[in-house]
Write a structure and sequence with these properties.
Bound molecules: calcium ion
Number of domains: 2
Protein name: fumarylacetoacetase
EC number: 3.7.1.2
Shape: globular
CATH class of the largest domain: Alpha Beta
Structural class: alpha+beta
Oligomer: single chain
Number of strands: 26
Radius of gyration: 21 Å
Helix content: 10-25%
Enzyme class: hydrolase
Pfam families: FAA_hydrolase, FAA_hydrolase_N
Pathway: Amino-acid degradation; L-phenylalanine degradation; acetoacetate and fumarate from L-phenylalanine: step 6/6
CATH superfamily of the largest domain: Fumarylacetoacetase-like, C-terminal domain
């Protein structure tokens, strides 16, 4: 499939992608949009030309500040919307070719959080990450807890503090207990960290009291985003027993603005690792349910060049999304359109593929040097952290773009603009 529209050859946003997002231009009105190369295609304006006639009866779904109502139309409709756009962009005689005003240069568009997230759940599904953290926080000999290979461990996170890429992140303060101190103190975190994750957006409501099987799960997954689950390790280490993450995690999480549909990633399915011991029947699955998505994280100290600090891959996940969703609903818990489920930190086998500074610098023992010449064990004020992700083969490239944020504190409000 080729397009008459100019698309840079290495673009994440090839004609094979056609993700969905929410944008505004100078007039401040929100519109649903997709991205093609370095341009944003306004779907609200496209709908008003009659482009979606016979497919979308209520075109106001393209004028909302979030995509929930659009997603609620269901995959038979949203997949067809995507396909109709693809066909028009590849058809030399498409009327779309006479409508250059619908294609807005990327720099003229502000992208927003694309969905209203009712509930956010974070899993812990990378065996390498869980092992690394277990070694550091607990017992090197028994790093994985006994339940870990039997169920996808997760917890309910906080939806209100999920922000879109570009939003400045405030360094949180909290209660930490310095080593050897008798009592805790309340201070700005000294161990601010990123977590390299991928999130998936629920595309279909389920009913309270019913469960989603692994075979049905993909019907409920609208698409994927890059996700940074910001973490304060010193707060985490002190607070997490016995109920798990709380204030060390809920001060902010950030996501990329473009939702890449599950269908766009279909050619990048791969098998995950063999799960041993065998899982319980409700967690068994058929087919290839992992995805080969390359991931990288860069840190950019203020005024300096970025440095890539890790390269990982979504395919490393021990528990796949279908198992996560089947487990999440196995007790009858319902899920709703717009809910976000995140993978948990995605680490590979070796140091170069670890998904957090905690692991890369091994709890502060092995700091790395960045382009400002200074050592880093964790994230400093002024640092910008960027996560990128893409799937690629000889025929196509489908990328997520990036999720980036800079860290500010109260004494540096000017940093917010940079
Ligand atoms: Ca996490």
């Amino acid at each position: 499939m080729n397009s008459w529209f100019p698309i840079p050859s290495n673009s994440d946003f090839s004609i094979h992608n056609i993700p969905f997002g929410i944008g505004t231009i100078a007039d401040g009105r929100h519109f649903a949009c997709t991205r093609i190369g370095d341009h944003v295609l306004n779907l609200s304006a496209l709908a008003s030309t009659g482009f979606f006639k016979g497919l979308v009866s209520d075109e106001s779904v393209f004028d909302k500040p979030v995509l929930n109502d659009f997603i609620q139309l269901g995959k038979p409709v949203t997949n067809e919307v995507r396909q109709r756009i693809q066909n028009a962009l590849s058809d030399d005689h498409s009327p779309l070719r006479q409508m250059p005003q619908l294609f807005i240069p990327l720099d003229d568009v502000v992208m927003h959080l694309p969905v209203h997230i009712g509930d956010y759940t974070d899993f812990y599904s990378s065996i390498e990450h869980a092992t690394n953290v277990g070694k550091m926080f607990r017992d090197p000999e028994n790093a994985l807890l006994p339940n870990w290979r039997h169920l996808p461990v997760g917890y309910h996170g906080r939806a209100s503090s999920i922000v879109v890429s570009g939003t400045p992140i405030h360094r949180p303060s909290g209660q930490v207990k310095p080593k050897d101190a008798e009592s805790p103190v309340f201070i700005p975190t000294q161990r601010l960290d990123f977590e390299l994750e991928i999130g998936f957006i629920i595309g279909k409501d389920s009913y309270l009291g019913s469960s989603i099987t692994t075979a049905e799960a993909e019907e409920y997954i609208f698409g994927l985003v890059l996700f940074n689950d910001w973490s304060a390790r010193d707060i985490q280490a002190w607070e997490y027993v016995p109920l798990g993450p709380f204030l060390a995690k809920n001060f902010a999480s950030s996501m990329s603005p473009w939702i890449v549909t599950l269908e766009a990633l279909n050619d990048f399915r791969v098998s995950g690792v063999t799960q041993e011991p065998k899982v319980l029947p409700y967690l068994e699955f058929d087919g290839k349910r992992n995805y080969n998505v390359s991931l990288e994280v860069a840190i950019t100290p203020i005024g300096h060049e970025e440095a890539i600090v890790t390269k990982s891959n979504f395919k490393y996940m021990y528990w796949n999304m279908c198992q996560q969703l089947a487990h999440h609903t196995s007790n009858g818990c319902n899920v709703c359109v717009g809910d976000l489920m995140a993978s948990g930190t995605i680490s590979g086998h070796d140091k170069g593929s670890f998904g957090s500074m905690l692991e890369i610098c091994w709890g502060g023992k092995n700091p790395i040097t960045l382009s400002d010449g200074k050592l880093r064990s964790f994230i400093e004020d002024g640092d910008r952290v960027t996560i990128r992700g893409w799937a690629e083969n000889q025929e196509k490239r489908i990328g997520f773009g990036e999720v980036y944020n800079r860290i500010i504190n109260e004494t540096w409000p000017g940093l917010a603009a940079q």
